[in-house]
């Protein structure tokens, strides 16, 4: 088997409309399609980033909360490459997004910072 690329990333939100607004209005994803699945009381939306990446956003009634510390098994976070982490953090803060302080990756010397989606999912800005 040869894996060509990552096809999509899937997230579950507790409030579909709130998460949809965050990923489109705050982070700049474009909604490609969405469907309500009545049998599951669930929304599913496909969001596009720069014509290359697809984020699938799901909602389900009463999903279990994400584990916090200590860190749990599974996807740890999703990182976005940006040209300027400090400018990105300032823009996110202006939009009311909870952010951590800018720091330096001790392994690469690159600037980075974590921020959080409406459900507390950790996301990262990482400088190119």
TrEMBL record:
PROSITE patterns in alphabetical order: VOC
CDD domains referenced in this protein's UniProt entry, alphabetically: VOC_Bs_YwkD_like
Keyword field contains Cytoplasm: no
Swiss-Prot/TrEMBL keywords: Metal-binding
Domain VOC: 5-128
InterPro entries for the chain: Fosfomycin_Res_Enzymes, Glyas_Bleomycin-R_OHBP_Dase, Glyas_Fos-R_dOase_dom, VOC_core, YwkD-like_dom
Protein name: VOC family protein
């Amino acid at each position: 088997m040869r894996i060509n690329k990552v096809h999509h990333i899937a997230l579950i939100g507790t409030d579909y409309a709130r998460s949809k607004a965050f990923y489109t209005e705050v982070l700049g994803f474009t909604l490609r399609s969405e469907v309500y699945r009545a049998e599951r009381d669930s929304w599913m939306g496909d969001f596009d980033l720069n014509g290359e990446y697809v984020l699938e956003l799901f909602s389900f009634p009463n999903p279990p909360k994400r584990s916090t510390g200590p860190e749990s098994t599974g996807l740890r976070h999703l990182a976005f490459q940006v040209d300027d982490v400090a400018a990105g953090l300032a823009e996110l803060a202006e939009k009311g997004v909870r952010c951590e302080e800018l720091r330096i990756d001790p392994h690469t010397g690159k600037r980075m910072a974590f921020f959080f989606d409406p459900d507390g999912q950790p996301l990262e800005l990482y400088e190119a």
